[in-house]
Amino acid sequence: MPLVRIDVTENCRTPAQLRELADTVQDVMLETFAAPPRDRYQIITEHKSGQIIAEDTGLGFTRTDDLVIVQVVQQGRSEAQKQAMYRALADRLEQRTGLSSQDLIVSVTENTREDWSFGEGVAQFLEGRL
Prior knowledge:
It is a single chain. It contains 3 helices and 4 strands, in the order E-H-E-E-H-E-H. It is α/β, with parallel strands linked by helices. It has a single domain (about 5-125), classed as Macrophage Migration Inhibitory Factor. A 4-stranded mixed β-sheet has the order 2-1-3-4, covered by helices on one side.
């Protein structure tokens, strides 16, 4: 159950383009992170121009307002799965949305089973419901 936050610059994409972006990210989560079907938790946030500051960390990248930052909160994925996800996101987003791989930043954060409640004020993993 990865929780995925997608941050983009406001007015750079239509609602249909935002949905294609989100759908592409979800496809990669299903394939590389073995997320179960219907396990989709995504938040898309649009920021005014200039409110995302993302330099190139000395790598020589040229960033544009087309920048997409994907943050994934998850548990239990291997280093190989994470690397496969980075590659698949870069490749698929370029193929399906035209996003330059230099305009993609991905961050993965890990947590544990007790860090999730999906509703009703209970930790379903700890109760054995998931």
